[in-house]
Amino acid sequence: MSELFKADNINLYNEWAGVETQNPLVGFIDFSTVKPLRHARKVYGFYAVFLKDQKCGELRYGRRYYDYQNGTLIFIAPGQVFGAEDDGAEFQPDGYLLMFHPDLLRNTPLGRTMREYSFFSYETNEALHLSAEERQIIMDCFRKIQYELNHPVDRHSKNLITDSIKTFLDYCTRFYDRQFITRDNQNRDILARFESLLDDYFLGGTAKQIGLPTVQYCADKLCLSPNYFSDLLKKETGATALRFIHDKAMEIAKTELASTDCTVNEIAYNLGFQYPQHFTRLFKKEVGCTPNEYRMQVS
């Protein structure tokens, strides 16, 4: 495996791509203007958003191939690794790249809301696929950022650039919502597999052996990233993945309390709680009474 290229800042990436740095905290590249490059796996020190055309290669959605043809947006956060192994051959890159450093966002409204854009933690096989109309909107956002990069820096520059980036990310949030909806059949399949996974986990004894299922565990079993899985579930059910797991555990607990002679401690351990008091505390929070109080009500 080749050594990782540490793209700690935008200038280092621009040097690799052979383009001029206009602003050390913001960059934009039209890859059609770039000379042929060699692949490299890079660890990023800044936010990067690639607009790639479908012709750049087959991308998959979970275990299914994407069916969009107008391009994909891939979001990379600082500290993440993205790229292909260097095979020694040159290739002509295509598409566009928007880069912005976390330092740009200090003391800005966007800096205070960046964590809300959870798609920066999606896997590449959960990229955003754009319709022709959506692509045009994205390109309009890019042009505004390019305009500011080409404009002499003044007291308005930072606010205008960060506002344009925020507008761009807000549109991406809207378009991801649309993608969740248009992939309704796949989403229902994921939900059905998630419910089956939880049933097997709790009723098959896995919880007792290794503890409550985590969001990471469930997402891995469903071949999704945790953030994408949580966002999909919230769009479909209104509940987070963790809430869904807790709800399932409480439903099983209520059944056990009503239909068996198992003690509260036994039920807690069977559901994967390391400490029975944690189970009792969660049960009271979710159900409104303690496990023993619930058992008395339904007996």
Descriptive notes:
By secondary structure, the protein is an alpha+beta fold. The chain is built from 12 helices and 12 strands. The strands form 4 sheets. Strands 2-11-5-8-12 form a 5-stranded antiparallel beta sheet. A 3-stranded mixed beta sheet has the order 1-4-9. The longest helix has 26 residues, at 157-182. Strand 6 and strand 7 (64-65) form a beta hairpin. Mean pLDDT is 90; it is low at 55-68. Helix 3 runs antiparallel to helix 4 (157-182) and helix 9 (241-259) crosses helix 12 (291-298).
Question: In short, what is this structure?
Answer:
This protein is an alpha+beta fold. It has helices spanning 10-17, 109-113, 132-150, 157-182, 184-203, 206-210, 215-221, 226-237, 241-259, 264-270, 276-287, 291-298; strands spanning 5-7, 26-30, 37-38, 42-44, 47-52, 60-61, 64-65, 72-76, 81-82, 90-91, 96-100, 128-129.
Compile the SSE list and pairings.
Layout (H helix, E strand, L loop, with lengths): L4 E3 L2 H8 L8 E5 L6 E2 L3 E3 L2 E6 L7 E2 L2 E2 L6 E5 L4 E2 L7 E2 L4 E5 L8 H5 L14 E2 L2 H19 L6 H26 L1 H20 L2 H5 L4 H7 L4 H12 L3 H19 L4 H7 L5 H12 L3 H8 L1
Parallel strand pairs: 1-4
Antiparallel strand pairs: 2-11, 3-10, 4-9, 5-8, 5-11, 6-7, 8-12
Helix pairs in contact: 3-4, 9-12
